[in-house]
Input
Amino acid sequence: MIDQRFGDKGPTAEGGCTCRGVRYRLDGTPLIVHACHCRWCQRETGTAFALNALYEADRVTHLAGEPEMVVTPSLSGNGQSIARCPRCRVSIWSNYPQAGAAVRFVRVGTLDDPDRWPPDIHIYTGSKQPWLVLPPGAKAVAEFYDLETTWRAESLERRRALRGLAGN
Ligand SMILES: [Zn+2]
Ligand SMILES: [Zn+2]
Output
C-alpha cells in the first residue's frame, strides 16, 4: 500500500537545528503527529502550541552532531528530556517518561520541510489560545486521547513491536 503522505519526496525526511551543528534523518511516516496546546508547550516554544511527530528512536538517525539532553520540568512532574543542539540550543526532539526512551517527539518545525507533517490531532485544547481557530473537521481533544482508537493500524502495529522489544 502506498502511503499518500510520502508524496513525491520519498520515505525519508531531514532536519536539524539553526546552526546546522545537529542534523537528523527520519525514516518513514510518524506514528502520529500531535499539536499540543498545553500551557507547558506554549511556554517551552514561546508560541501557541508545539508540533511533535512521534517516531521510534531507531527511525531518528543523527547525521551530524549529538544533541545534549536537558531535563525540563513537565506537567506530570516526571520531567521531559529535551534533545538540544549543544551550540545553538535549539530543541530537536524530546522524550516523555510516559512514552519512554523508545519514542522521540520530533519538533516538526526543525524539519527542512516543516510543512511535511501536519497534525493528526490537537491535544490539550482545553488551554488552546482563544484566537487560534482549528480547521473545520480537525481532530481535537480537551486533554489526551485513547491510542487504540486514534492511531492508524500501521502505527499500532509498530507500537506493539516496540512494546515487545521493551518486554512489556
Ligand atoms: Zn545548532
Ligand atoms: Zn504540551
Summary: The chain has three helices and ten strands. Helices lie at 39-45, 147-150, 153-166. Residues 17-19, 21-22, 85, 87-88, 90 surround zinc ion (ligand 1) (CB under 6 Å).
